[in-house]
Amino acid sequence: MEIKTVKTPPSDRLSPFYTGNKPPLRPNALVKLPPGQIEPRGWLLSQLKLMAEGLTGRLEEISPFLREDSGWLTLKGKGWEEMPYWLKGYLDLSYLLKDPEMIATARKWVEAILKSQQPDGYFGPVENKVNNDLWPNMVALACLQSYYEFTSDRRVLDFMTGYFRYQLQMPEEKLFPGSWQKLRAGENLESVYWLYNRTGEKWLLELGHKIYRRTADWASPILTPERDRNWEESSFYHGVNIAMGFRYPAVYFQQSGDARLLEAVENNYRQVMDSYGQQPGGMFGADENIRPGYNDPRQGAETCTMVEFMNSFESLLKITGEVVQADRAEEIALNSLPAALTPDLKGLHYLTAANLISCDISGEHDFQNSGALVSYDPWKYRCCQHNVAFGWPYYVEHLWLATPDGGIAAIFYGPSSVSFKAGEKGIPARIVQDTDYPFETRIDLTIFLEEPVEFPVYLRLPGWAEKAWLSINGSREVELKNPGEYAAVRRFWKNGDRITLLLNQPVKVHFWPGIGQAASVRRGPLWYSLEIKEEWKRAGGTDDWPAWEVLPASPWNYALVLDPQNPEKGIELIEKRSVSYQPFSHERAPLVLKVRAKRLPQWKEEGRMVGRVPPSPVLTEAAEEDIRLIPMGCARLRITCFPWVKWKQGR
Asked: Which of 224, 362, 507, 563 has its Cβ near the most Cβ atoms within 10 Å?
């Protein structure tokens, strides 16, 4: 047996059993498994079931864009991004749950797309062709790719071949002339590579070069002084565009091999996050654009931005194999995304912020757009209402990824099982993961095999996990001290073998220099927010589809009492509950921390919005008291970036 840590699985070979990049594209470090090989369990499965019972599964009941007069069905009416946005997640959800009725509904829309193709290869509503707008088709292609992966329906390959020939013959200046399609054309490029990897048609690589030439320049710095001056006119400053576009140079890297493109991706990520991401939860403030001077944790992130950012990290993960990409996707999924929706997943809001003290309908928030943007309403928020659908399904499909050396990689920990082909001969194997992660530190893996076989198992060691311990079949634990890498375990495995991984989750306090050294509390993958009592107040809608305001019913303006030399001192885990069907709720928060704090009267509301975090350390004469912190994803109202006062020595 060999146990070692590695930065990435080997990326110098092709996966022997699964569809990855064909030469001359660079081999994938990690390869997505065929649909159906991963089965969510426990709280992960319940998220999918809640989706099916909630907004995503029943969106046809209320969305005006999913009616029978949709241009995607009639070809004559209007049909833009909304339907394929929804179908992109709904289709994967229906197959993950193996729900016959949902699968039939998804197929209705897929068949409409397939039947819409014209003799020249174009498809979709005629109005989009008249406007030369290929953006909505990029989303529809993602739907078709998932459908093919679930069904192996050959029509999809022929359909996409015809459409890409249409794009290849287009005059270059007419391909993606502007707007969203130019900024988001990397989505189109990914689909071209997907088809090439299944057909091997060399002309698709010629189209790949053409598409990248016509895509907006995401390899240059995103933030520039000129764009700062004219941010309202810069589509590069739109939050969703950033979340999608920053990865595109890495997508093209697969064809060009130019390592500078990977450097550009990381440089732009850091540029945006250092300026606008000084907050917990993995997001950056863009309400709907990033705005110079509006970089504090009350600005919020669009729900669309969350799921698209996660998708970008999942894409980068397969290209580079780097653990940090999984860390970034997981941070959003476990902290920011859950509170963007009601616990029953029947309503959502447009913007979610790390510091948010009122989800009301007043519109008295200093956001770029006007109107109610933070109340929970299933009827509003046109793009997010549909696009949120693929967040959890895509996450589940990346829980496990195949490695090119006949192994398997555990990427996002959570209760699940995976079936795959192991070793040089592709012996059928199955691994069951028993864990309540992220609410628990222990992960148990049990391997089931038809016959003994040698293969590697790669276990992600998150960047926050300074220590981890690994044991095989109850043997003496091996300590691992390489966070941000993989623990690679290679041996001849036999049926019933067990791997136990323990991830150390100490409480950590993080200081944000960009917002006056504000403090945030983290334990393992979860950030923690002040437990503000929530008053849920009906704000319209129907009995089946209610809209809600969530208003504060307890104080929120606290400063933590911290020792700058030992900031974690005095922060304790005081409650640990069993993980419920919906753990991301205020009432059923699985973990509660206690910390000392003082009220800060000078920290006040601005309209219905929380005031800016005062620079720390602050002064207050208020008495010390204990406050409770719950996981950020459980808190619809939250303070997650705190000012702080100095701990008095010797008390």
From this structure: 507
What count of other Cβ atoms lies within 10 Å of the Cβ of residue 36?
12
Instruction: Say which residue the tokens 């309503």 belong to.
Output: 347
- Element (H or E) spanning 471, and its range? strand 468-472
pLDDT for 159 equals 98
- Residue carrying structure tokens 């693929």: 390
Q: Is the pLDDT of residue 650 over 90?
A: no
Which pLDDT score, from 0 to 100, does residue 615 have?
Answer: 97
pLDDT, tens only, 379-407: 999 899 999 999 999 999 999 999 999 99
b vs e for 550-569, b when ≥16 Cβ sit within 10 Å of the residue's Cβ? bbbeeebbbbbbbeeeebee
Q: How far apart are CA 271 and CA 274, in angstroms?
A: 5
Amino acid sitting at position 521: V
What global pTM score does this model have? 0.98
CA gap 125, 113 in Å, rounded: 9
C-alpha R_g of the chain: 24
Q: Measured between alpha carbons, how far is 145 from 282 in angstroms, rounded to an integer? A: 28
- Phi, psi of 225, rounded to the nearest 5 degrees: -55, -40
- Six token digits for residue 293: 């001077």
Phi/psi of residue 320, nearest 5 degrees = -105, -25
The per-residue pLDDT of the chain, averaged, comes to 96
Smallest CA-to-CA distance from 53 within 581, 488, 650 is with: 581
Instruction: Give residue 359's pLDDT.
Output: 97
What confidence category does residue 251 fall into, taking pLDDT thresholds of 50, 70 and 90?
Answer: very high
Q: What is the pLDDT of residue 649?
A: 55
Residue by residue, DSSP assigns 569-592 as: TT-EEEEE----SS-SSSTT-SEE
**Residue 432, Cβ density class (10 Å: 0-12 exposed, 13-18 middle, ≥19 buried):** middle
